[in-house]
Amino acid sequence: MPLLLAAAAGLCIAYVHDGDTVRACDGERIRILNIDAPELSDSSRCSARSRQRLAGSKNPPWCNFALGERSRDALRAFLSRGSVTISRSGTDRYGRTLATLSVNGRDAGVYLVSIGLARVWK
Questions:
Q1: How distant, in Å, are the alpha carbons of 8, 41, 85, 118, 119 from that of 61?
Q2: Fewer CB within 10 Å, N or C, the chain?
Q3: Domain extents for the chain?
Q4: Are strands 29-32 and 97-103 parallel, antiparallel or unpaired?
Q5: Tell me: the pLDDT tens digits for 48-100?
Q6: pTM
């Protein structure tokens, strides 16, 4: 069920997919810049094949599903605290907007890293 997080004059967030990806009310898919959050149980990155393929990469899959749920929930709570602002920086290979999301001047990615629910993207 989509959670509608909206604030006057800010970015309208329709849905928080996981700890580093959201969908705006206009359908735009947004990947939080410079962080990696734990995967959720339905992530293809956590299949045996993907884990093997990505094992030596700079950003191997982080397949702690319980922590992934906590990360998603923390991002949802963070974004509901006020008007969400966005600073876009391009797109990734999946067509998602890469951006910094902030609430009341506080960066969502920095917040998640500071509480151990995301790590810096290498």
A1: 36, 12, 28, 12, 12
A2: N
A3: 13-120
A4: parallel
A5: 999 888 888 888 889 999 999 999 999 999 999 999 999 999 999 999 999 99
A6: 0.88
